[in-house]
Write a structure and sequence with these properties.
The chain is built from 9 helices and no strands. The chain is mainly α. The longest helix has 27 residues. It is elongated, with a radius of gyration of 19 Å. The relative contact order is 0.16.
Length: about 220
């Protein structure tokens, strides 16, 4: 999910995951308008996944939907907003994978294992939109990139202390914390180059295989 930074910083609140965005000409959402927005997003997902951001136009989206341009512009101001609307939910799902309740007293090792499983599973579950930031990183507004970077910082603010605690507990064996965290979490990022839902391995098998590799990077002691 574009997890690119483990630089220490002031932790972000766990619930602070808002994205600066517009909303076309729509002023108030209803059940009916939510359905229409979802319809637009579903068709746009397939176009972006097949053609990429640069090669997908609003005219193509309109034709695929069988509607008029004003219909689409009522819900979204342009294709960039559509692209960001598709990319944001996977970013939130993946980059809050290490969030646990304050009263969760489980050992750090258990939280690391669960959080990594969530990260990988969410990346696979949100295919293909989860891979858009890797394929077309230039497509996003500065505000979007800033919001995603804030989420990435939040992710590592949760993960790195857990890794260090698990190492102190004798459950993990690694050297540099941030390099180890980046290396382990980069594994699901490379999915965009080869993952296919109808491939040789099922989604669950892919999650399990990547999880085992990530634990090797972390030096899990059995």
């Amino acid at each position: 999910m574009g997890i690119t930074s483990a630089t220490p910083h002031k932790p972000a609140p766990a619930g602070d995951v808002r994205l600066p965005r517009g909303n076309g000409r729509q002023r108030a959402a209803t059940a009916a308008t939510d359905l229409q927005r979802e319809r637009i997003l579903q068709v746009a997902t397939q176009l972006f996944a097949k053609q990429g951001y640069a090669n997908t136009t609003m005219a193509q989206l309109v034709r695929a939907l069988g509607v008029t341009k004003p219909f689409v512009y009522y819900y979204f101001r342009d294709k960039q907003e559509i692209f960001e609307a598709l990319s944001w939910p996977p970013a939130v799902a993946c980059l809050t994978s290490m969030d646990f309740a304050p009263d969760d007293k489980r050992p750090a090792r258990e939280k690391v294992l669960e959080g990594l499983d969530r990260l990988i599973r969410n990346t696979v579950a949100h295919h293909p939109a989860a891979f858009f930031p890797y394929r077309d990183p230039q497509a996003y507004r500065p505000e979007y990139r800033a919001a995603q970077t804030k989420l990435a910082h939040h992710f590592y603010d949760q993960l790195c202390p857990l890794l260090e605690q698990a190492r102190r507990d004798g459950d993990l064996d690694f050297d540099d914390t941030r390099i180890t965290a980046l290396a382990a979490c980069s594994l699901p990022g490379f999915l965009y180059t080869w993952y296919r839902p109808d491939g040789r391995l099922s989604p669950d098998e892919v999650v399990a295989a990547l999880g085992k590799l990530a634990l090797r990077v972390l030096g899990l002691k059995t």
